């Protein structure tokens, strides 16, 4: 449904920001020939390379961290930093994915992720694999990797935020500073704010009959989760000025409910995703249950599956823009 829209959106939102990413990039030196002649001498003489970017001190949750200016060999250990790096024009050399995920998020073109080396599951990366990639910067968060921070910083300067999810906008600014991409970050922030305002205006003009959106996630090993305002998708819905059902209109990230309380998942529009195996996550049992079939959104044919890697793991400005785009489509505006 959304593949063409995603491609168009990425092109429209990314052009100026990606230009800001690459405008000051230095060209890697050409290899010298056997007689010592530099194959890039002629072009280098006509267009000298920019001077090196000095190191940057980033104030992180673990204290000040000195990182190289404009790092290029970046390893990311969670989905939020994967979105941040790719958004800001950096293709990581390595990345960790949640344990049940077998592929990189497909809201990114395969050409952007094909060269990224998988370094293991998020929360338990394989450190020898990380070391072999010779990173000059590692990005993650304390919730995932706080207990191995000392090991990681032996491999490369390591920048951790406290957590992920709701504070994604502030985290993105820290990622941008660590990546020396503040100008590009500002462009993406402005584009997102404009996009969110346009979606909010379109929804107001369309006057849909119901705008309270329920967010439900079926998690293998974690049960049925309902998402509140203090979550990544919850903040994006708030930016679009979309309401939430009363049980989910709370200042917390998420909470688990048993199947016999599935009524708390109801809304004017119900969006649900699955992480892991549909049977072991409880999705199959829930969809077949009388409680699910009795939900007003289900009876009105307004319950839709969404991509878990986008809606719940695409924690960043590119992911958020696509969520806005899909939300507008679901609400018919």
The percentage of residues in β strands lies in 15-25%
| Distinct helical segment count | 15
Number of E-state strands: 12
Radius of gyration from the alpha-carbon trace, in angstroms: 22 Å
- Biggest sheet strand line-up: 5-4-3-6-7
Considering DSSP H and I runs of 4 or more, what fraction of the residues is helical? 25-40%
Summed up:
The chain has helices at residues 3-22, 41-46, 79-87, 110-113, 127-132, 142-145, 149-155, 168-178, 182-206, 232-239, 283-287, 290-293, 296-299, 308-311, 317-330, and strands at residues 56-60, 63-67, 74-76, 94-97, 117-121, 137-141, 158-161, 213-219, 223-227, 254-257, 269-275, 303-305.
How would you describe this protein?
With 333 residues, this protein is of the alpha/beta class. The chain has 15 helices and twelve strands. The strands form three sheets. A five-stranded parallel beta sheet has the order 5-4-3-6-7. Strands 10-9-8-11-12 form a five-stranded mixed beta sheet. The radius of gyration is 22 Å and the shape is globular. Residues 18-47 have low confidence and may be disordered.
Set down the secondary structure blueprint:
Layout (H helix, E strand, L loop, with lengths): L2 H20 L18 H6 L9 E5 L2 E5 L6 E3 L2 H9 L6 E4 L12 H4 L3 E5 L5 H6 L4 E5 H4 L3 H7 L2 E4 L6 H11 L3 H25 L6 E7 L3 E5 L4 H8 L14 E4 L11 E7 L7 H5 L2 H4 L2 H4 L3 E3 L2 H4 L5 H14 L3
Parallel strand pairs: 3-4, 3-6, 4-5, 6-7, 8-11, 11-12
Antiparallel strand pairs: 1-2, 8-9, 9-10
Helix pairs in contact: 1-9, 1-15, 3-8, 9-15, 10-15
